[in-house]
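Quick entry between incubations.
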Amino acid sequence: MIVTAINTAARRIPPWTIYVLGAGYIVWLVWLGATGGLGVEPINALERELGRTGLQLLLVGLAITPLRRFAGINLIRFRRAVGLTVFMFITVHLTVWLVLDVQDWGLIWKDIVKRPYITIGMVGFAVLIPLATTSNNLSIRKLGPQVWKKLHWLTYAAVVLGAVHFVMIRKGWQLEPMIYLGVALGLIAMRLKWKRRQGAVVKAG
Amino acid sequence: MAYRWSNDLTAADVTPYGAYLNRRQVVAGIAGVGLSTIAGPVLAAADELKQNTWEEITSYNNFYEFGTGKEDPSRYAEALTTDPWSVKIDGMVDKPGEYAFDDIMARMTIEERIYRFRCVEAWSMVIPWNGFELGDLLELAGVQSGARYVAFETLVRPSEMRGQKYPVLDWPYVEGLRLDEAMHPLTIMATGIYGRDIPKQNGAPLRLVVPWKYGFKSIKSIVRITLTDKEPATSWNMAIGREYGFYSNVNPKVDHPRWSQASERLIGGGLFSKRQPTLMFNGYDQDVAALYEGMDLTKYY
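Done. Structure below.
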């Protein structure tokens, strides 16, 4: 009953709401940063909040299918918007790092090749690019749904890379990033279990 | 003896207490007077030495005893009781014992020291400390001839220091210096900032300040000082030895394994703050280079 209510309400919300909320949050964060609302070190604070929100949204996107399977709540129509908003956040996160934080192209390149947590972050971002560029109906048509689905398994790679990047950036082992990594691995484990079960069904049939 | 080192940053550099001087307004102001081109490098130097505000110094802290976020210490350090307080001085000293904080303050000469402070995370501040030379306190206790190092220990009190409930580091926090580093005129025990009692989030009631080393060596809320002949264990070195060495001298040529140490962010510059190049020994090269002559600073990082 309540599930039907949620699904009906969700159907009334247009997916572009997510883009608007996401972009609005980014603009608000930048404004806060420029006016002292993010504390005395706004550059780092901005980087952190953009990265963290991007990672959170990625986890939300990966939770949509399990949510449908276990609770019957259908938010699939928002998944594309969630995914592209992740790309929005991570692109701005990267831009803040390049332009406001490191500032020097020589240092940037050195960081990318010499600092493992940055290499991992860059690879994670690179993985998001094919995902973002194929997040449209034309791509699904051109690639065919099978190929498109397999390509979008890269999302699992992206979330693990992002979470590991987060774990590595802190001094010592800290709880918060480990929680994100745990949730990411949990969502992946769930999918692997399903695939194995599907495989077993196919074999039995 | 006190006063063995004088500030190169003078009262003229001091930002008025509580006032936030917008960095870009300063630059624009001077530019308006037409001095920007010639004054460029000079301006940059003076700009770098501008003191951070009280708000910046007391709201952006690494003090994992209260949590790992930069805002955690200012949020949670109020719980700490700093009165009564005593420092146990032991090891190779003539007069070991519990030295009450008030007694120490009565015997020491407090002076103002305006120092650059450089965190290993590559951010920095300019802080007007008030404190006394560590050498004076050690002389009070009478350092014996066999002593080679000074070890320090922070309070453990999880009931008041909520971060100590989590083993992000092994508590108590410990640090150490070579004896000549400890006796150096630059090395102080800070008990105040901007003429006020040092806030709890900054390491009340007394903390070490070794301005040519990364900030984590400037151990806070000290309860024990031990004179020893063996190199003491230090917390960050025990936690991640590859990244944090015993010496941890500020050195733009020796990178942290995970990030470059060649530049730093001066706190207070806002969203568009330009990174500054890091100076050898945090700009105290002339004062301390002699301590490390002949030492391979990449090996002894």
